[in-house]
Amino acid sequence: MVSPFVVTRTLPNMAAAEIAIDLGAQGPSLAVSTACASGATAIGVARDLVRSGTCDIVITGGSEATRVPMVATCFGQAGALSRRIHDPAGASRPFDAHRDGFVLGEGAGVLILERAEHARARGAQTGRASPSSGATTPPRATIRAALTGYGASSDAHHFAAPHPEGRGAELAMRAALRDAELSPDAIDHVNAHGTSTPRNDLAEALALHRVFHTPPAVTANKSVFGHALGGAGAIEAVCTVLTLQEQLIPPTANQEHPDPQCDLDVVTGPPRPAQIRTAISNSFGFGGQNAVLVFQAP
Length: 298
Hints:
There is one protein chain. By secondary structure, this protein is α/β, with parallel strands linked by helices. The chain has helices at 6-10, 14-23, 38-51, 69-77, 116-121, 167-180, 198-212, 222-225, 232-246; strands at residues 57-64, 107-114, 125-126, 142-143, 146-154, 189-191, 217-219, 248-249, 272-273, 278-285, 289-296. Strands 5-11-10-6-7 form a five-stranded mixed β-sheet. Strand 6 (189-191), helix 7 (198-212) and strand 7 (217-219) form a beta-alpha-beta unit. Helix 3 crosses helix 9 (232-246). The longest helix has 15 residues, at 198-212. The protein is globular, with a radius of gyration of 19 Å.
């Protein structure tokens, strides 16, 4: 028996449609598809909608249902998943010399983007969010960060493998910096794509060295969350915003043997307090589709 709802429950745009229906939002409603860069691309597109004046406020983010047998089978057959079955908790190890693939994760990340003048007009304030003090009216929203740059590129190289020197990733990072009108030395922190696959991590590291010469402190959230595919970029964007808000870089798990070919300052062990004014979040996907976001403290 085939449900009459199969089509409407599987179309990619329906997540955005459900939110619009629930909130009664009648502005643009759409989904983007750039593989594992989709969450970051969605945030970049949303930023453009706000910047152009098309929207005052946009709800944006990414999610994907990955922990299902068919998805796991397909990625396993492609050789993308870790085979560290004797140590599942240690299987995701970005930039580690013994990495052998990623671990599937699942989740969502959502940001609310708003024009600065619109936020100020309604009394939004900068700084850390604080709980309500028992007032009968909702507290004014807190501006957690500014999204000042977005860059996108294509490797134009291979349907699955990244450019071996990370040329497409480099183009996206440089485009994001130009968009933010920042030089590389203005970046204090990198939230890396860091999939824990041999080729992707090395390509990203090479790109980081070309853009920054001496890359700033790096973290790789997939070591903890796993790889949420289309949702990963949005989840990591949220983590980058929280890093700026708390001035605390979350550590990368399982980096026991740093890969000397990557040669990055990967934060491990306890969270690292740091003065962070500006950070970037990298997201790269199959098909060589890349998206990079620049966030700054408000």
